[in-house]
Amino acid sequence: MDPFTPKQCPPRTPNVLDFTQGSFSKDIAREALSLVPPMTNTSVVHDNACGTGAVTEAIVASSQKPGKLFATDLIPPFVASVEAKAHRNGWGFVKTATMDAMNLLGFESNFFTHSITNFCLQGLSDPSKGAKEIYRTVKPAAEGGVAIITTWATIVQGSAIQTASEATRGKGVALRIPWIKQKTTTEWLERHLKNAGFTSVEVIQQVGYTETEDLEKWCELMWAFLGIPSDGWTQKDETQWENAVKLIFELVQSNEDVELHEDGGARIRMLANIAIAKK
């Protein structure tokens, strides 16, 4: 836990994550799942870095019923959210656990028939470790194994958050999840997966949209999620909070991928990289 958190910064709860990602994460998961062989009652599936369960929900909505589905995430409230959904909806095949995507030692090698990592790899402190764990835990293609890995190709808030950080803190302050344009390319994703050991990697791009009823609030929550420095928040961040959010809001409003609504909401266009990897 960080020693200091600005009073304006909301806790990282499932509701906050759902508000920021909207339907985009689930929509991309649904598209990605359509690119691989369907699941059967013998499939063993991993919803890796599951968040609030976008992948799990997309699987259930597609009427696919795997034999087992393990949903894991490093943040306990997210895991608890998926567990509650599974209990409430009678998804008896869903099991949950708190686990780091860079250290999946709770699973043996060659365990999963389907491994899905949805919008996580770019945010890891060591993406190579995450890719290697995906490779280790998925079955070989000859045994029906396939991995799906998605990353952001465009995110309207990325450069805005970097700009706000420099404007309120000065240059040279590293972010915990830095905005690095090279990480958004298909080449970056393919390279990490091949370096992990995958022999077959196909990457496509898919456009998606998300709606927010309050764009300014959306920008503030994005700052809360992605604006934290690598060394943690400071008292100055609390003092400069409103200035940072105002600048992000202004920059996002002027982005060509954002369609503004008169009521303060917006429709946001995003682009995803979808990799299908086999070993």
UniProtKB/TrEMBL annotation:
Any single Pfam family the record assigns to this protein: Methyltransf_11
Protein name: S-adenosyl-L-methionine-dependent methyltransferase
Keywords: Methyltransferase, Transferase
Record-level Gene Ontology MF annotations: S-adenosylmethionine-dependent methyltransferase activity
Gene Ontology biological process terms from the UniProt entry: methylation
Domain Methyltransferase type, first and last residues per copy: 47-140
Domain of life where this protein originates: Eukaryota
Gene3D superfamilies in the cross-refs: Vaccinia Virus protein VP39
